[in-house]
Amino acid sequence: MGEGSTGEPVRPTRIGVELARGRASYSVLDQGQFLAPRPVHPLAGSPGAGVDPTHARVALIGISMMLLGGDEVLIEVSVGAGVTLEVVEPAGLVAYNAAGVQARWRLSATVADGGTLLWAGAPLVVAEGANVLRETRVSLAAGARLVLQEVLVRGRTGERPGELRSSVRCTGPAGDLLVEELDLTGDHRSAMGVLGGTRVLGAVTALGFTPPVLQSTSLTRFDTASGGAVARVLADSAHSVTQQVEQVFTAWR
Fold this sequence. Notes:
By secondary structure, the protein is mostly beta strands. It contains one helix and 16 strands.
């Protein structure tokens, strides 16, 4: 547990799911300072709807305005053996002008042997004057799988982008599976070879298995040494990028 801007302990949002009598069962479902986890049923006609009792689906519902300067959003997730947990962010998140005061968003997840974590992330918009540190940490046991969707938007329409540092580190039994550091602070915001002149970065990461190859002219696929893959797209339209990564997420899940 970390500390917020006031020095008080941060109350994390906690989600734990395990296999009990052949069905997914919640062992932990704790509301945090900013987010409340709410179990939801798969929509009729959606992949796996009503046919897999080992599949749990949770929506993260905002209960307090965020992200403001000094906010620290902490999410802790535990997926048991043989269970699939799908986490959905129903609405995008805006980091507001905070005159450069940093806000933090942190995900810490562990996935046991034979477990699967599906994270359907909504867009994070970093408004002018915002300063965000986004950290994703996932530990996969042998036989565990991850599909992670992310969309990062540099500034709202008509304004300059705020500052963003995004860090993703996924580990397995033998060590690191994926380590990525994206620094869009200071002069790095306009550096060549990072995002160029585009505003939106979308990515889908699949680890613990080899996802199928998709036919797309706008997505770039990077295969990892461990057999996983990352599909990435850069564009100026958050709507277009979100549509594309959602298609990949659906295919890879």
